[in-house]
Give the backbone structure.
Amino acid sequence: MADRSQQSALAEGLARQGHVQPAVEACHAALRIDDSDPRIHCLLAELMLAGDFYDEAIVSASRAIWLDAECSPAYLALGLAYDRRGGMWDQSILVWHELAEVEPELVIAHVQLGEAFSAAAFDDEAIDAWRRALELDPTEARAMYNLAVAALKKEGMATALPGFRKAGELDPSQDDLFFELAGIYDDGNPAPDPADVPDDRQARLDAAGALAFEEDFFAAAELIRLVLDENADDAEALGLVAYLYLKQEAVNEAMACALRALTISTRTPTAVYCLGVSFSKRPGLSRNAARVFSALAKAVPHNAMPHVLYAESLLGLQRYGLAAQSYRKALQLDPACVRARFGLAAVLLTEGAYADATWEIRRAAYHDTRRQGLFWQLYDAYSGGKP
């Protein structure tokens, strides 16, 4: 028993460090001693999944579930293996349904269940599953993207566009672009207390950016107000104010601040971003948004998100060919960009390329689940208290 425990701990440690092959060997060593621990089987399934060995992942995950029907990480690995293997949607639906019952608050289970339903042509059931995901987490961007795609299939792009815009607002990668343009990065330190910020322009601006990064928008606004009290023509400060207005859905105010900043200095990338986003939020201004985001994509050519934003504005203009080019450029820069894959899927659907669109959605799901690290969350919760 001690040998098995040592091998199990070794396998888990190696897997967490990303050492797949040694972890697989340690799993097999533990199973040769005692193959009755579902944790080892589901850990082996996750390792097989990481190596794209889907049949082997299915076998190991199924064994874990046979040993313990409450083994939630095994359901996750099994569902993902079925989905990525393809052509096994009936089994996939059953697995995601079971995971949703074992972990009813797990949002991704409902999102994946909806995608399995959709792949099996159960469109109404898919929509119900995605709506359930949004009930659990209104910020779940992938469920919103899927609902927008469903609307596109049923009623066309005009009906789907608001859903794509809403999904984009929920996607945190757009905020990441703003902070990159502002030169604000997570250094691991908490934002300073506003009362402790030195009485000078750069310190206040830096602190306001850090507070905005941590979503303390009111404290950030107070510091920016002090900067603008001293110089109302500070373009950098106006760019940050525009962003703060956007986060409060004050689009007109954001647009005014961004325009003012660009009047003072055209080389204010944060203001360009905020102006483009403001235009995109106003019906009828898609052409203006396209011009702004086109300029931003040229100014920041190596970041995927400006190309995505440009493509989304082109969707509103029904310029699908150019939108597809921009989405593909974004995916060249970042193949894991979920937002670009859903957008490209939408364009492909307008062209009648249903198989290609489905493939893009599946790749979006692949990258999204890998990014979230859900397996280890479920594994740790399941292992808690077990010997």
User: Anything to note?
Assistant: The chain has a mean pLDDT of 90. The chain has 22 helices and no strands.
